[in-house]
Amino acid sequence: MPAGFGFDLTAFLSACTALLAAFVFGGLIGLERQIRQRNAGLRTMVLVAVGAAAFVHLGNRLLGAEGETRIIAYVVSGIGFLGAGVIMKEGAQVRGLNTAATLWSSAAVGAFAGSGLIAEAGAVTVFVLAGNTLLRPLVNYLNRQPISAAATEAHYRVHAVCNAENVTDARDVLSSALARANYPIREIDVLSETEDQVELAASLIPTTADPRELDAVCAEIEASDAVDSATWTVSTTL
Question: What would the pLDDT profile of 33-70 be if each residue is shown by its tens digit?
Fold first, then answer.
């Protein structure tokens, strides 16, 4: 065993150094999260980094490098449960993924610090902060760009409006037209329904699509006596 159970001043100072480094670096990451009013802010990031550093350092004190390796493996997998707690699904939107990834990165900072690799812990901190700040303008720019139906993997729907008594025939027309165009269908849903008309939507399996092909499919569907009108829409996948 690398260390006994008595008080070891050198080992104690080493532990304090590791914990202080984890506290400072975790605090820097948490400060950026706190400023942006995220669910996991300053205190959470500090505690994750310090906790990871403490466990890794303890593994080293008890079993040396082998103990560090074991603890780091548990930190990598165990932090996933904490990250899952900040991920929320609101309708079709999933929120908190970036915060969960930041928690995971804070644990990595703590693991480096707990292993005595203070410089590396600082380097990881810099890259985490850069990812959360410097990349933000680029992400915002890309998010404002229109969805390219020809190049973007997205969620495509082909819509058909028909009379209520023609729903079965309209479903068959949708399925046949998309099958001939080699666009596989995940499901066909009823989006809206009144006494006179029904709107069907065929959801395609995520893929790329050619707008001209989808326009041709809609024209073919509209040509059917069972369908009043047809169109297609595209939205981003999760």
Answer: 898 888 778 999 999 999 999 999 999 888 888 888 88
> What does pTM read for this prediction?
0.61
End-to-end CA distance of the chain: 49
Q: How many angstroms separate the CA atoms of 187 and 168, rounded? A: 14
Distance CA 71, CA 77 (A): 10
**Which amino acid makes up residue 61?**
R
What is the number of other CB atoms lying within 10 angstroms of the CB of residue 156? 24
- Domain definitions of the chain by residue range: 9-143, 154-236
User: Tokens at residue 152, please?
Assistant: 């973007």
Residue with token string 């990250």:
83
Task: Retrieve residue 122's tokens.
Answer: 């600082």
**Domain 154-236, what architecture?**
2-Layer Sandwich (3.30)
Tokens representing 223? 């040509």
Give kind and range of the element (H or E) at residue 8. Answer: none
**Token pair 């050619």 in the structure block, residue:** 210
Q: What is the pLDDT of residues 184-204, one digit of tens each?
A: 898 898 888 888 899 999 988
Q: How far apart are CA 26 and CA 20, in angstroms?
A: 10
Distance CA 166, CA 219 (A): 18
Specify whether the CB–CB gap between 73 and 66 falls below 8 A.
no
- Structure tokens given for 158: 């082909």
